[in-house]
Write a structure and sequence with these properties.
This protein has about 475 residues and is of the alpha/beta class. It folds into 4 domains: about 5-135, Nucleic acid-binding proteins (OB fold (Dihydrolipoamide Acetyltransferase, E2P)); about 135-290, Succinyl-CoA synthetase domains (Rossmann fold, 3-Layer(aba) Sandwich); about 350-415; about 425-460, no CATH class. Helices cover about 50% and strands about 20% of the residues. The protein contains 13 helices and 16 strands. It has helices at about 5-15, 35-50, 90, 135-150, 175-190, 205-220, 245-250, 270-275, 280-290, 290-325, 330-370, 375-415, 420-425, and strands spanning about 25-30, 30, 55-65, 70-75, 80-85, 105-115, 120-130, 165-170, 195-200, 225-230, 255-260, 275, 430, 435, 450, 455-460. It has a 5-stranded mixed barrel. The chain has a 5-stranded parallel beta sheet with strand order 9-8-10-11-12, sandwiched between helices. Strands 14-13-15-16 form a 4-stranded antiparallel beta sheet, with no helix packed on it. Strand 6 and strand 7 (about 120-130) form a beta hairpin. Helix 1 packs parallel to helix 2 (about 35-50), helix 5 (about 175-190) runs parallel beside helix 9 and helix 6 runs parallel beside helix 7 (about 245-250). The longest helix is centred in the last third of the chain and has 44 residues, at about 375-415. The protein starts with a helix and ends in a 7-residue tail after the last strand. About 15% of the residues are buried.
Length: about 475
């Protein structure tokens, strides 16, 4: 019978014995049975997975690692014990929060055995943080992240136009929110153009659709303000307005945005990054649409203020004109005075210019006497240049000789301290994974050690360890 057949029979035998209990695996009748490590691990895997099944475990995350493959590897521990755990990409993609070391969680999963190493671990399918729901935890994490980036700063908020002419509304076309907004706008300001950009506002597919609808709203021509929102609901219903991509689109929007999500007590990430938060969709409509009656009253008030201001200005100008008329003199006499003044100024200007030219000529003559011959100055500077060049060359040669002497001394000292000199006297250097072994406590039985000799090197296996 071939080795493959023998192995298959052994696997069949150990599977059959799994139902008898752990104590039955070591003997068959009165004769001891010998199993391979693989067979033993298969037996333990079948036993654990068959007996334990799905479990709920509460513990603190430690040694958390998000692998490049997308899988999460970590340990769950309490005050007395710990267990390794893994959460594959297909399951952790549904998490609404980011796990981290020190977080206390409740997980649901199955006990499994990793056969090549004989390690058992918890394969998690669901995870919830202890003390706060997953959605609330994700909300706080994203809020903290965006706040640290400055997306909530008041300095970045754009003012809402006082009298917008075109409003884009991103919401569900069949929800109560759009009806409330349109009712308010039709009652308060019929002249405002309204464009509804339809989207779903609830469910897992809502966030990407809201993002696309918002992009369409920003691309509409001549839009003065955008209202984005929906009616009230649970945190799950409004979760699409906590999407990070949507938050960044709102923050980067070139058009002012009003967030009107839920009721007054409801807050979403969209509320924090928008330029203005309205407690309800109806309140958002009231903020952008001034009442026609209010505008009429304000126009009348401004008309009266303009009339009073105009009357006051005319009275002031009339009084000023009468005062100037009294001070008015004969224009011919005024022209004569100005001609005399002009002649006087012209004489003074000619005198000042002549004096200035004379002073400049005298100064030029003095400077020419001080300047001397440019050639003599050039010759003098050439001599200085040759002198400094010679000094620099001597200093450089001296410095190089000094550095050479210092380097020779250092090389002699370094050579005397080299561990290779010690090796040449009969000693050796022992390392483990490139770490020099100085104490027996650094190794254990079975470790591979590299030994460097004066001539060549060798690899040794630790047979025993004696610590003094």
């Amino acid at each position: 019978m071939s080795d493959a057949s023998n192995q298959a029979l052994r696997k069949t035998d150990i599977t059959a014995q799994a139902s008898l209990g752990v104590g039955d695996i070591s003997t068959r009748g009165n004769e001891p049975s010998v199993y391979s490590v693989e067979q033993l691990n298969i037996y333990i895997k079948q036993l654990l997975e068959g007996q334990v099944g799905m479990v709920w475990v509460k513990g603190e995350i430690s040694n958390f690692k998000a692998h490049t493959s997308g899988h999460f590897y970590f340990s769950l521990k309490d005050s007395k014990s710990q267990i390794t755990a893994v959460m594959f990409r297909g399951h952790n993609a549904r998490l609404k929060f980011k796990p981290h070391d020190g977080m206390e969680v409740i997980v649901r999963g199955r006990i499994t055995v990793y056969e090549p190493r004989g390690n058992y671990q918890l394969m998690c399918e669901m995870m919830e943080p202890v003390g706060a729901g997953a959605l609330q935890k994700a909300f706080e994490q994203l809020k903290t992240k965006l706040k640290s980036e400055g997306l909530f700063e008041a300095a970045k908020k754009r003012p809402i136009p006082t009298f917008p002419r075109h409003i884009a509304i991103v919401t569900s076309p069949t929800g109560a929110a759009i009806r409330d907004i349109l009712n308010v706008l039709s009652r308060r300001a019929r002249s405002i153009q309204v464009t509804v950009v339809p989207t779903v506002v609830q469910g897992e597919a809502a966030a990407p659709q809201i993002c696309e609808a918002f992009k369409k709203a920003t691309s509409l021509p001549d839009v003065d303000v955008i209202i984005i929102g929906r009616g009230g609901g649970s945190i799950e219903d409004m979760w699409c307005f906590n999407d990070e991509k949507l938050a960044r689109l709102i923050a980067a929007s070139p058009i002012p945005v009003i967030s009107a999500v839920g009721h007054e007590i409801d807050f979403t990430i969209a509320d924090f990054v928008a330029d203005l938060r309205a407690p309800t969709p109806s309140a958002a409509a009231e903020l952008v649409a001034k009442s026609s009656g209010e505008l009429g009253t304000k126009v009348k008030s401004l008309e009266r203020m303009l009339y009073l201001s105009f009357e006051k200005k005319m009275k002031y100008l009339n009084e000023k004109m009468r005062g100037l008329s009294k001070r008015l003199v004969d224009p011919k006499r005024r022209l004569q005075d100005l001609e005399l003044r002009n002649d006087d100024l012209l004489n003074r200007l000619e005198f000042a210019m002549n004096r200035l030219l004379s002073d400049r000529e005298h100064r030029v003559e003095l400077l020419n006497e001080k300047l001397g011959s440019p050639q003599s100055l050039i010759d003098e500077k050439k001599k200085d240049l040759e002198y400094f060049k010679a000094r620099s060359e001597k200093a450089l040669v001296f410095a190089i000789e000094k550095k050479k002497a210092s380097m020779s001394r250092m090389m002699a000292i370094l050579d005397s301290l080299s561990p290779l000199k010690v090796v040449e006297r009969g000693y050796s250097i022992v390392t483990k994974e490139n770490e020099v072994i100085k104490s027996a406590s650094q190794v254990k039985k079975g470790d591979l050690l590299d030994v460097r000799l004066a001539q060549g090197s060798l690899t040794a296996i630790v047979d025993s360890v004696k610590e003094e």
